[in-house]
Specification:
eight-stranded mixed β-sheet
Length: 206
């Protein structure tokens, strides 16, 4: 009888711990930095020894095709002087070889809303790129109650995401059923599930 009671107590303790683990969001920070010179964007300059400069972690402003700013409007053409307001609007107009530059902030200003890239394809000579372009400011997307704010890539190829952060979302930066995906200089923290993940049927995701 004593052994049975102990087994029951242990079983309920296990269930309690399991529930706590399930409902508690992850607080671990996940980072993704360049892993080798081979995977650095082509626009990164060469150092004196002929290798790529690993400090090149943002999109050069001179190469930006479209711009996003919190002070913009989605009815704008997406130029630097008349930027879009949401990252998704900027993503929706991208084609192979184009770069979307997102304004960062140093005063705590954050973006909201998920960013979905589906059936978007660049090629080896014309990557689709989204990210920050100011090295002293961060592009941060914040969700609400661990929903929204996810940067998700599906059924796409030759995509680069660079110089961004996501927080308080379900999943951070994810790619699935895609190939040739570069996650560069990213940070994901205080999220429910994935931080930065290359998921189902995704090849060459770095």
């Amino acid at each position: 009888m004593f052994k049975l009671k102990m087994k029951n107590k242990l079983f309920f303790l296990f269930l309690t711990l399991l529930v706590i683990a399930f409902i508690t969001p992850t607080s671990t920070e996940a980072y993704r930095q360049p892993v080798s010179n081979n995977f650095m964007p082509s626009f990164c300059p060469l150092k004196a020894d002929g290798t790529k400069d690993l400090n090149c972690l943002y999109i050069p402003k001179s190469q930006c095709n479209y711009f996003v700013s919190k002070q913009g409007n989605d009815n704008n053409p997406g130029t630097e002087s008349n930027p879009f307001a949401t990252i998704q609007k900027g993503v929706d107009v991208l084609t192979a070889g184009k770069k979307l530059c997102i304004k960062g902030y140093s005063d705590g200003t954050k973006y909201s809303g998920s960013v979905i890239l589906t059936n978007m394809n660049g090629n080896n000579n014309a990557w689709i790129t989204i990210g920050g372009y100011e090295s002293d400011k961060r592009v941060v997307i914040q969700g609400s109650n661990y929903s929204g704010g996810t940067v998700s890539i599906t059924d796409s190829s030759y995509i680069r995401v660079i110089g961004m952060e996501v927080t308080k979302v379900n999943n951070g930066f994810t790619a699935q059923q895609s190939n040739n995906i570069d996650f560069i200089n990213l940070k994901a923290y205080d999220n429910w599930n994935w931080g930065i993940g290359c998921l189902l049927y995704t090849s060459r995701c770095v």
